[in-house]
Amino acid sequence: MAGPGFRGHPAGPLLLLLLLLLRQALTEGPLVFVAVVFRHGDRAPLASYPTDPHKENIATLWPRGLGQLTREGVHQQLELGRFLRSRYESFLSPQYRREEVYIRSTDFDRTLESAQANLAGLFPEASPGRSEATWQPIPVHTVPVTEDKLLRFPTRSCPRYRELLREATEAAEYKAALEGWTDFLTRLENFTGLSLVGEPLRKAWKVLDTLICQQAHGLPLPSWASPDVLQTLAQISALDIGAHVGPPRAAEKAQLTGGILLDAILANFSRVQHLGLPLKMVMYSAHDSTLLALQGALGLYDGHTPPYAACLGFEFRRHLGDLDDNRGNVTISLFYRNDSTGLPLTLKLPGCPAPCSLGRFRQLTAPARPSVQGIPCHGSHEPATPAATVVPLLSGAVAVLAVLSMGLGLMAWRPGCLRAWGGPV
């Protein structure tokens, strides 16, 4: 069916996507719940550096300010929203319904604006160009940065996480790699005017971020910023990320980072099903650090940083027949969209075929999710923080939905001392 003539047709990719979704629905059963986590769109650099040749023109080059969403970022999110509309055309109502879709964002301009642009692509009444009479804004929920325990990384404020990170950075492999880059970082200090040797590797990553942002927007880079330099900076960044989300003790790190969000997604689905609520989709607008933490919790971190507008989706389906492992009749499929020019990637949870039964999924991810005893944010010789009481259920569908609305994304959170890992990007 997908012969040369089909691929060459202007509507080929869309038809292929529709056929793929039809086949998926027939083989996996009807969709009952979706959670998507996406990175914000293209933004200005987060910072400059002392010798940056463009630092005197920051106000002109980035009129909205450093770290802010660009027009390209808006378009990326519009396109992602349109993709979600095409993927869930028969699942979501044609127009936004507050009881069906809940949107949560971190409290940053770029993620809040990304969520709004995404929704403008997902729902026609929120799209650009609508007349004043028909335009309808869609609410995006958030909490203050200091109170966000769901979509951000922990830092030194969590003693146990510090212990785990220290164990990773004191490993022989890590030290050997870092020592091999000492001369490179020394040269980079001379080029950038920054102190980098012996400093957290995130400082080197910020140099890379600035250079990549400038390059993406057509600005000339200094002569020392060769492709080899950018590649080495990317390798340094990957080492740093791996220490935060990878082995050793990756599962315990995940309990303090992406496992919290993973637990919330599973808890949201369970509550919606248990109460028979009409909620169909939860959307999280966040950062690459959020996606990296979630990938770490799933055992799917591959050493690559999620690009702008990357989207990781969880699709819960009601299986039409008995599952082989007798773990219920709901399956979870994972997809990862990191390229707008092609179909999203289908991800497979290690140890479980795709789609994975909900019971098996819960079993395999349990070590990476917070336990009922609470989040072990304290040191290894101190007791874990007690688990929080789940938001109490009130009688009446409206009251229940209101409580769910307040708790979505937070109900799986158990008190602890979590803050952002060096600030989100």
UniProtKB/TrEMBL annotation:
SUPFAM superfamilies: Phosphoglycerate mutase-like
EC number: 3.1.3.2
GO terms classed as biological process: negative regulation of ERBB4 signaling pathway; negative regulation of neuron projection development; negative regulation of protein processing; odontogenesis; regulation of neuronal synaptic plasticity
Catalytic reaction annotation: a phosphate monoester + H2O = an alcohol + phosphate
One GO CC annotation: lysosome
UniProt key word Ribonucleoprotein: no
Entry keywords, A to Z: Glycoprotein, Hydrolase, Membrane, Signal, Transmembrane, Transmembrane helix
Molecular function (Gene Ontology), one example: receptor tyrosine kinase binding
Signal peptide residue numbers: 1-27
Enzyme class: hydrolase
Transmembrane segments: 390-413
Pfam families: His_Phos_2
Family that this chain belongs to: Belongs to the histidine acid phosphatase family.
PANTHER family found in the cross-reference section: ACID PHOSPHATASE-RELATED, TESTICULAR ACID PHOSPHATASE
Full protein name: acid phosphatase
Organism, as annotated: Sus scrofa (Pig)
Protein encoded by which gene: ACP4
